[in-house]
Amino acid sequence: MLKYFIITNDHFEFGTRLVPTYYYYSTIIKQKALTKGIHYIKLENIAERVSDGEHSHIKRNKIGGIRYLYGRNIKEGVINFDPISDDSFISEEDYKRFTRCHIKENDILINIYGTIGKSAIYKGEYVGKAGIPRHISSITLKGDSPLSPEFVTAFFRSRVGKWQLHNLTTGNIQQLLSLKNIKKIDLPIPDENFVNKITNLEQISIKKEIKAISLIEQAKSTLIKELGIDFSQIQKIMSYSVKLSAILNSDLWTPAFSYPLYVNTLKAIQSKWQTIPLGEIATAKKGDEVGSDNYNKYLDKKNSDIPFIRTSDLVNYEVDQFPDFYIPQEVYQELRQDIEAGDVLYNNDGKIGLVAMLTKQDRVIIQSHIKRLRLKAEAKKYNLTPEYLFLVLTIKEVSRYQAERYTVIQSTIPTISNHILDIQIPILDKKSIDEITILVKEAFELKDEKKKLIKEVKDEIDRYFDT
Fold first, then answer.
1. Which domains does the chain have, with CATH numbers?
2. The model's pTM
3. Residue 17, pLDDT score
4. What are the residues facing 282 on neighbouring strands?
């Protein structure tokens, strides 16, 4: 059914710019809320500071220093780290010199270029000391603000929040949410009990995420310790030669396949532990391409639409709860992808080596560039668990080096194709595998609880506005 509404010249904002969806918000959604007694306040009236990050280019590195975020690191409610493609750090000296990049504890960070509107709260506890570039805006609320940072980010994730964020956006090719428009965002002022309820749920969910990440890092440290190998002692030899016989015995004639760091690291592992090819202990099934004609964005989707998980939607070892696109229910039913809680997902193309695990809350469709890994019955004789497999695949020296060996460029996209099944999985003793499994299992139980809380928050706010 065609929907229409009428506005007059005196309703125009942003000069003569006419964006029907924005005026639908201001004349229909907002007015409906006002009649229900919901009052609004402009963000600039409760914000101490609204700014973007550093405009100058700052040299980045993968080695260490101060965490420096990309716009794509800001996901809904969490800050994501991409160990595959991000040069994640800047030097302490540059951090001190470029003060515009500084952010404060509990600042709201929001994407303002490209994929705009995703927001999260900066928590040094799991992000560490960090800076931001111009693609991210930081919002510091006043001490007497009637709204908390947690409530504001939760509102930004709601349908009403998204109506504003996306319809205040300008630009044709590169979208921009300007600082001027951010300051003019309408924020609802509900009763104090409702604000406190949302704030509390958000705080609990953030604590669960922080704890989950901590447990995964603890499990990774346990695995490295139990391997008993000082990887720093394996030399990075940049000039090397390979015998012709070695090349002829391989179907990959690439420099990376014979790179001594990768080869010698695997040899060091195999000198101490039995290893098994992934293909002997697990099945790998790729996802599907559904066609962009089936893509629905968040504001266009039906409640029954299913999240479509692409390679960019593996976030902090899980699938993004708010991906960019959703797929109609009938396509989901037609595909009948065989995926379930406990399955390990592995980026097979593009950002090769990003790993995630599905939780009970995840009902999704995965893209063809992602492979679903599931242990075979044979894995039991090695005491292997999905949690252990997941963790092994996250370790750079154990699995990512091997993935780099098998990576080739297919047209313009890196891929390892079915060579993922050639990755050697070290078999530790049962006690170590069990210890790692317990840590990872607890981490993903927390992530599952976190997702349940975030869904509850979203539903609460949507019901409040009756959208």
1. 40-189 (3.90.220.20), 212-452 (3.90.220.20)
2. 0.92
3. 59
4. 375
CA dist 172 and 175 (Å) reads 6
Cα separation values, 415 from 6, 391, 399, 411, 425, Å: 52, 21, 15, 10, 20
CB atoms within 10 A of CB 424: 18
- Per residue in 345-356, pLDDT tens? 999 988 889 999
Q: Name the token pair of 402.
A: 């091997």
The sheet that has 119-121: what strands, in order across it? Answer: 47-52, 136-141, 108-111, 119-121
Q: Which residues contact 59 (CB under 8 A, 6 or more apart)?
A: 90, 91, 94
Beta bridge partners of 309: 366
Question: Helix or strand or coil: residue 142?
Answer: coil
207: confidence class by pLDDT, cuts 50, 70, 90? very high
Concatenating the DSSP letter of every residue in 46-73 gives TEEEEEE-B-S----BSS-SEEE--GGG
Which residues fall within 8 angstroms of residue 254, CB to CB, at 6 or more apart? Answer: 407, 408
Q: With left for phi above 0 and alpha for psi between -120 and 50, is residue 15 left, alpha or beta?
A: left
385: left (phi over 0), alpha (psi -120 to 50) or beta: beta
Task: Identify the burial level of 416 via C-beta atoms within 10 angstroms of its C-beta, where 0-12 means exposed, 13-18 middle and 19 or more buried.
Answer: buried
Helix, strand, coil shares of the chain, percent, nearest 5, are 45, 20, 35
Neighbours of 452 (CB within 10 A): 14
